[in-house]
Amino acid sequence: MTYKSRLDGRKDNDLRPMEAKVGVIPNAEGSAWFKIGNTWAIAGVYGPREIFPRFLANPKKGVLRCYYTMMPFSGSGERIRPGTSRRAQEIAMVMKESLAPLVDLSAFPNSVVDVFVELPQTDAGTRCAAISAAAMALAHAGIPMKDMVSAVAVGRVDDRLVADLDYREEHIGEFNPDSHGAPVADTPIAMLHATKQLTLLQMDGELSKEMLLKLLKLGEEATEKVYQVQVKALKENYSSE
Amino acid sequence: MAFLIILRHHHQRIKSDKESLPADKKRNMSNISNVVVQERAVVVPGEILAEGMDYLPGDNTYRLGDKIHAKILGLVSVAGRVLKITPLAGPYLPQIEDKIIGKVTDITMSGWRVDTATAYSAMLNVKDATTRFIKKEEDLSKIFAIGDYLIVKIINVTSQNLIDLTLREPGLRKISEGRIIKVNAQKVPRIIGRKASMITLLREKTGCEITVGQNGLVWLNGTPEGELLAEKAIKLIEEKSHLEGLTERVEQFLGGQKLPERKTVSAAPEDA
Q1: Domains assigned to chain A
Q2: pLDDT of residue B31
Q3: Would you call B244 and A240 a contact, using CB atoms and an 8 Å cutoff?
Q4: Using CA of residue B145, residue B147, residue B153, residue B157, what is the dihedral sign?
Q5: Which domains can be identified in chain B, with CATH numbers?
Q6: Hey, which of A26, B41, B164, B212 would disulfide with B156, CB 3.0 to 4.6 Å?
């Protein structure tokens, strides 16, 4: 059984409806939220500030630190225990890896910039939404950055290559008995806008080389759509009236 | 090639562009330089500001290939052939000769440690704090206690952003009354205004004594009403300073009101 049309009726290269806003946390130096479908990430940036514990300090440049948290009531309704988990730590790590290449903290030795991302509601694609929100919040905080990064998941459901999988597509077997056993691969990517360099590329599932190359093409197109939303939100914050 | 020609027609070329380009007929098409954003436009990091090698990257921009990109969120300004960006937000970078407001956080053998509202704390040495001779066993907390706010000047900054301060200059002192507010450090020049015009306006209309630290801490001292009004006006400047006509906006906000200075506070209720 092949995956004939997407569960929510989108075209293969369509993303879920996106919305973004900056300046949502008054106390933070920079902040933003980014919504894509039912996934909602709120990012707050604090710093550069004194780093604790001290042994993390780097005398050559500032340190970027990321935190990822799903709120207890987010997700499917199963309570998510507060505090960190193996999964949250891993996602915080990939967030840091995808943001660190673009921020320039050389002017702030021995300091830290903290990026906190909270997800009040999740429906797959959280690490991508978190990265997109964090990039906006960092820009809003006035941190020197060589580029913007935009993230979105692309993947395959059976032999169909699609952009921005939601939770039901990722778990197609559970929701569509016809497609039982259909292979699903989910590939979150984060791409810089100016240079089209990838700062995040993960893969969950199986892909052939040809499929991966096609997916990266699709991903480039998809991250561009995310970028447009990010830029619009950043500029709107400073539009007259 | 066609692409460049289209850009040439589509984007309004700025005056200085024409002036700086020699009217050289031999210039081949691939050398055409163009500023692709407008003066005072808001740009995001990574955004292309100019194409071609005729422009130079200034503050907060960088060159990649034949293009100049933005390195921070801010407003574009073009000065001759140099493109630069005025940040809309961002951390304060300590600089020598800057007057800042700091808070005493610790007392050491030789002076005071001062929080500068940045990632870096500063040292105020005894010799830079007072002209008086301080005996070895003297209690430094009698001079400045932990929690005191000081108006100080930066006399030295190292590459690692270690900061030395002084109080031995006119206008520098301990703050003992009024209130401190924190603003975006990038907006400090807007609050002071060209030749201190904005801060003079604020002082006149609110009757407050106002000192703006380059680190974004502002000290207000006047009547309670005056301080509140000044705080609101400063918040307005912080929010709207990237828009045109800031002075008019602030004047309109402060309106015809002229609050009295603190000493004449007893006469105020009748006027209002």
Answers
A1: 18-234 (3.30.230.70)
A2: 60
A3: yes
A4: positive
A5: 2-87 (2.40.50.100), 99-175 (2.40.50.140), 179-263 (3.30.1370.10)
A6: B164
Sheet holding A30-36, edge to edge: A18-22, A30-36, A39-50, A111-121, A63-70
Residue B12: pLDDT over 80: no
Q: How many CB atoms lie within 10 A of CB A157?
A: 24
Angle, vertex CA A159, rays to CA A156 and CA A161, nearest 5: 40
Mutate to test the interface with A, among B73, B116, B163 (most CBs of A within 10 A): B73
Q: Give the pLDDT band (50/70/90) at residue B102.
A: very high
Per-residue pLDDT tens over the stretch A128-137: 999 999 999 9
Cα A45 to Cα A114: distance, rounded to the nearest angstrom: 6
pLDDT recorded at residue B21: 44
Question: Is pLDDT larger for residue B17 or for residue B186?
Answer: B186
Collapsing DSSP to helix, strand or coil, B66 comes out as: coil
Contact across the interface for A234 and B186, Cβ inside 8 Å: no
- Say whether the peptide bond before residue B224 is cis (omega within 30 degrees of 0): no
Measured between CB atoms, which of B62, B64, B119 is closest to A111?
A: B119
Between CA B69 and CA B241, with CA A148 as vertex, the angle to 5 degrees is 70
**ipTM of this predicted structure:** 0.92
Of the candidates A56, A78, A58, the residue with the CA atom closest to the CA atom of residue A167: A78
Rounded Cα distance, B256 and A209, in Å? 72
Enumerate residues 213 to 232 of chain A having a beta carbon within 8 A of any beta carbon in chain B: 230-231
Distances (CA, A) of A1 to A164, A185, A208, A215: 22, 17, 19, 22
Structure confidence at residue B137 (pLDDT): 86
Q: Which residue has the higher pLDDT, A28 or B14?
A: A28
Tell me which DSSP letter residue B176 carries. Answer: -
- What 3 state SS string does B103-171 have? EEEEECCCEEEEECCCCCEEEEEHHHHCCCCCCCCCCHHHCCCCCCEEEEEEEEECCCCCEEEECCCCC
> Alpha-carbon distance B59 to A181, whole Å?
56
Q: Are strands A39-50 and B56-57 parallel, antiparallel or unpaired?
A: unpaired
B104 phi and psi angles, rounded to 5 deg: -70, 125
- Is residue A1 less than 8 Å (CB to CB) from chain B? no
Query: Residues B268, B262: contact at Cβ < 8 Å?
Result: no
